[in-house]
Structures
1.
Amino acid sequence: MSKRKYIQVSPLAGLTDQAAIPSSKPETQRAILAATLARGRSIIRNDLRCVETTAMKNACRAVGAKVTEADRYLIVDGVGREFSLGQRMIDAIGSGLVFRVFTALTCFSPTPAVITGDAILRGRVMAPLFEALSKLGANIECIAENGKAPIVNWGGGFEGGRCDLPGNVSSQFITAIMFAAPLAKRPTEIHIHGEILSISYIRQTAEAMRHAGIEVDISDDFATITVHPGEYQPFEYQVYGDYTSSSYLVGAAALFKGTTTFSNVSSVSLQGERAIVDVIRTLGLKIDFDDQKHLMTVVNEKSYFEGDFEFDASDYPNIVPTLAAIGSFVKGRFRVVGGSITRLHKSPRIKAMVEELTKLGVDIKPIFRDGVYDGFEIHGNGEGYAGGQVLSSWGDHRIFMSLFIASLRCRNPNHLDGYSDVNCSFPDFFEQFSRLGVQFREVNVLKVDASQEEPAEA
Ligand SMILES: O=C(O)C1=C[C@@H](OP(=O)(O)O)[C@@H](O)[C@H](O)C1
Ligand SMILES: C=C(OP(=O)(O)O)C(=O)O
């Protein structure tokens, strides 16, 4: 019998009025990276400080950048092309982006580099990136299992030219080669095959590179991306709120009548997950922006929403788990498709949400396409659920945060594991939910065996 720490989430009657949205993880990570690749000083304002942006900072420091945390901004003294890999080892922890981008960048390291990550990252798909980089001339060796982290990149650069990638496994393979390509001697042409998912992340990469003076050409259908050799230039950059993180706060606001205002938001964003705003409006809530004050106000006049809804999440993968939580409280049918890429994220996210929400009594069924989890369909009656369950986060911050908001409208407290993983992307998650009036506390759960768990006092 073992003890594990869980968060007990109490049922909530209504939200109080204000919270702040954390800054964007993808924007912060991209800005730190582009600043590292520029020779000279860049300033990144309103950056996000969390485990995965720290992983990016440490990886950039490992190749010689100086990254200093000032009050609400970062100073990055970049290295340009002159990597000096003193410690020869980069730990991406759980960040797919850090691992993939540094796998490509260390092709240009003067010394061999070992790149690794945590147990979840070591299980994630990497082979298409290794194959594309090999085609460009890279010399990458897998240390443990073929096609997986950790790796040794023996360096030697890549020339540029053509490489090929699938469009439906991870946009981070494309982002990784794009970021490294300006260091090559010739233009690099990335040909993307089949359905292209998570395009908004490719747009964010191109935007970060162009902001640093790099020329990137993208065909209208996104199937061909050409990156020209060039020198990254130092820049100043302002990061705004993270729409994926906002989805947990906005999602909670969708579950209770009332008016809630969120700060640190820009209505204009390249983030695909800005779609949370359209989803919530389609359900019937009112959302207003004040771009002078960077505020977003959500007005919810109903205790539940009714209708027949379908959303295609192909370009907003990271809010798929949140949508499952919100959709559980809709009266009618709530379908999400286009989420196949999420099976390759930190957990098989659709499977995880279907299994955990089923424990709560939600009528949710997975939707398969070509034999893989692609979405889900929920039939709800607009009511809450009994709750009183022990729920697993599957080791994934986004599953934890989604189950947390689903728990707010259960009649009995749920116990959720994995709460420290909010530090991956949303370190003040509990502070912001406390501001909204949510009550939770840490408890021990006695784990008798996998099928039998019972809450106990902390
Ligand atoms: O480049 C990025 O910052 C990301 C790209 C996306 O990955 P996939 O293309 O694998 O979905 C996204 O899901 C991930 O959370 C962050
Ligand atoms: C999956 C995520 O990021 P990454 O792919 O960079 O690990 C995430 O933010 O949930």
Note: Residues 26, 97, 170-172, 175, 198, 201, 317-318, 341, 345 surround shikimate-3-phosphate (ligand 1) (CB under 6 Å).
2.
Amino acid sequence: MKLGVPSKGRLMEKTFDWFAAHGIRLSRTGSDREYAGAVTGIDGVSLVLLSAGEIPRELAAGRIHLGVTGTDLVQDKLPLWEQQVEPLEEMGFGEADLIVAVPQAWVDVDTLDDLDAAAAAFRATHGHRLRIATKYHRLVREFLRDAGVADYAIVDSQGATEGTVANETAEAIADITSSGETLRANHLKVLSDGLILRSQATLWRSRVADVADEDRAAMAEVLARLG
Ligand SMILES: Nc1ncnc2c1ncn2[C@@H]1O[C@H](COP(=O)(O)OP(=O)(O)OP(=O)(O)O)[C@@H](O)[C@H]1O
Ligand SMILES: O=P(O)(O)OC[C@H]1O[C@H](OP(=O)(O)OP(=O)(O)O)[C@H](O)[C@@H]1O
């Protein structure tokens, strides 16, 4: 049975600690740079080290049976995610809010309604749509559609998203915030009704992965340890 976990960064170590607290020891093997891992304390489980951003796709393709990644990444990357994966446990780390933020200097813009008005005015003045930089395309589009914000364009940003406003590649952003430091440092403010999603690291089960006869015992044992 295959368990996919983040291969590096803030989620990896906490994932290892979380499983250890449940009697399942995960470790990286080989050199520092080799993406190989082992599971001890339980039989029949193999570890697959993956980018947190790819774990939703691997679960949905059935290539891993269980996987750890943020709610934000699952909901953004998988259409109709409930049909493809089941959340088993919220893990209590990797907590972050996906929000919409605008420049602090926009003193008249504090809500989504204000953003909608600003977007219409922006288009009239500049001849192109107000740009919102994000890597969360699906979640942002759905949220803004439901909020009635129409006149904008998404600009893809896969990192350093808060810098896009100063760099003049976007007028607003939608990104994850945790301490709020990055937003403050980049002179941005969250809209008062601009919370899209509260995310945290979660253990997911693939609803589509085949559980072979020889994997059933391992799956049952993992689930029993979590309970
Ligand atoms: N500042 C933060 N504090 C806590 N959790 C965060 C923070 N920023 C992002 N996260 C969460 O961590 C997860 C993404 O982690 P990370 O950025 O390491 O993944 P990634 O972008 O897929 O990495 P990789 O570079 O391996 O592709 C997301 O679920 C996100 O919500
Ligand atoms: O509210 P804060 O505590 O300041 O954290 C938020 C920042 O953390 C994440 O960036 P990350 O460090 O993953 O870098 P990235 O820009 O490459 O995504 C996120 O994209 C924000 O930029």
Note: The helical segments are 9-21, 55-60, 71-77, 81-84, 112-126, 137-147, 181-185, 213-226.
3.
Amino acid sequence: MRNLILVGPMGAGKSTIGRLLAKELRLPFKDSDKEIELRTGANIPWIFDKEGEPGFRDREQAMIAELCACDGVVLATGGGAVMREANRRALHAGGRVVYLHASVEQQVGRTSRDRNRPLLRTADPAKTLRDLLAIRDPLYREIADLVVETDERPPRMVVLDILQRLQQLPPR
Ligand SMILES: Nc1ncnc2c1ncn2[C@@H]1O[C@H](COP(=O)(O)OP(=O)(O)OP(=O)(O)O)[C@@H](O)[C@H]1O
Ligand SMILES: O=C(O)C1=C[C@@H](O)[C@@H](O)[C@H](O)C1
Ligand SMILES: [Mg+2]
């Protein structure tokens, strides 16, 4: 395995599970969204505001390429990283890919408290999440080595499931 890469929608728990996995595996943890913010010196809502979604996606593509070239890191990606084919290729080649699945209901519950996801500043965030998942679910699956359910399961249990199932994967 080169890297361990988490993909999935907003609120699936990529950042939360990624941090725990890295601790368990004693590997460095990188969160693409956080790295973009550090590099830009601005938060994601600001980038969307000033540069629009295409500006953010360009920054994201550059960051995904950079992070996928690492060796031995746990990487949490942004929910929309799979929208670009170049990212899907880089992620698949960058290591084992785990799709953290969450139902729209759980995503709504987990994202309703904070305001730093510009795509959810809509009149009906549940509909937005449903529409995004319809487009993205096949793309997450296309590059995933594992699909892991996160509904009704605390982060620790999700981490244990991932660690167990990673051991059972045949070599690529
Ligand atoms: N398995 C889980 N059960 C309950 N709550 C969870 C679970 N995983 C994550 N959470 C909570 O859901 C919220 C969102 O999680 P997190 O930020 O890790 O999602 P994300 O996939 O990184 O989202 P984004 O794509 O927006 O970065 C956090 O408050 C986190 O504590
Ligand atoms: O699902 C998405 O498109 C996004 C998810 C977040 O992780 C951030 O990357 C950003 O808010 C966009
Ligand atoms: Mg995150």
Note: The mean pLDDT is 97.
4.
Amino acid sequence: MLSAERLSSGMNCSCSSSSSQCGPHLCGSGSSIGCSSRCRLTHRRAHSRGGASIVMVQCARAPSPDQEGAAAAAAASIAVSQSHSKSLVQTLVSQSVSTNGAGTNKVPTVDIASAATAGVLETDGGSTRTQFVAETLLPTRHGKLRLRGYKHSVDGGLTYTEPTAIIAGNVEGREDVPVRVHDACYTSEVLGSLKCDCADQLNLALDMITDNPPGMVIYLQQEGRGIGLANKIAAYALQEEGLDTVDANRALGLPDDCREYTSVRNILLGLGIKSVQLITNNPRKINELKSLGLCISGRIPCIADTCNEHNEEYLQAKQARMNHLLEERQSCFWNHEGEPALPSIATQAKQKGIRTGIQVPDLSPAASNSPTIPFNGGNGAVQSSQQQQQQQKQKQ
Ligand SMILES: Nc1nc2c(ncn2[C@@H]2O[C@H](COP(=O)(O)OP(=O)(O)OP(=O)(O)O)[C@@H](O)[C@H]2O)c(=O)[nH]1
């Protein structure tokens, strides 16, 4: 069972979730406001905590079980929260009730205008902000998922991206929540490109959280590791000439990776999540999130096991040059002794007979054509191609 409880038992937290070392996670206790079941009447509650904020929830009509779940989830997630050090506040987008036609159908609508000033989580003096807009319950091929929309700006609102939090179950106020922070990959997720493993990783994570709630995927519009889609296409063009994924960026004068994760921090804080088990193979991502003050209590490998002729070199480059932990048995980022390695999500799913849509190869030592790439490092440093060549020569 790939549950947070099971996983947490095998992982050492780098910091205690109850200690201040973990940074400013929010205390969700007592701050959530739940919409009572079978709520028929307009219900409005104001809640103030620590001089923080006001939450208003309105339910216009009796919900169906699904709607009720969504409303309850939305209401539960509307936590008035407070950081240990300064005011990090999530307020609900205030909802107004508009009438439809003869006024018999009351339809709750999101008041975007008030959302511009409410629902803002700030991380600094004001230039970085993440604003919660709305939540819905989305039926998907993975199951029903809560989808929360945000607007995130790092320049005081001049420009913004739209992160989403895709949630299975109730994550509010919890510790050790399995979370995947996933960056957009138009080429694989929309066009079905075989050049990378991004879409497969997304599907794995969504299957994992729906099969083992609670859990969440935070989806960020940071295409091409932050360089943008057109630049990524330019990088692909250079890769056709023989450059690898890192050198192609450099040849364009672009950074290897310029993703920023302040929205992740804000979203997690807003939900009162105290610590996360990060679903990733990327040590840099873990370090970046830790440096934002988040408590990463463990790592869940996300190995799609879909090596093919088009992505083999790409995966090798990710492992050798960006230190991704892609070896099946190199499962845990944290250096705690004596822990048994956790198999990848795909393999665990296979063992449990859960469908993932991902073909899982036989990784037993007996299997001669295992596509798993041997692990050869993991210190977080990116290697240059010169370093790689030197290493290869030394091996020879
Ligand atoms: N610049 C560039 N970006 C790529 C390339 N292939 C995929 N991407 C982008 O890489 C991002 C995903 O980053 P990865 O480094 O593959 O993986 P990660 O998310 O850092 O690590 P995991 O959490 O383990 O998946 C997505 O935004 C993709 O659009 C490429 O060849 N060049």
Note: Confidence is low (pLDDT under 50) at residues 1-104, 108-117, 329-346, 354-388.
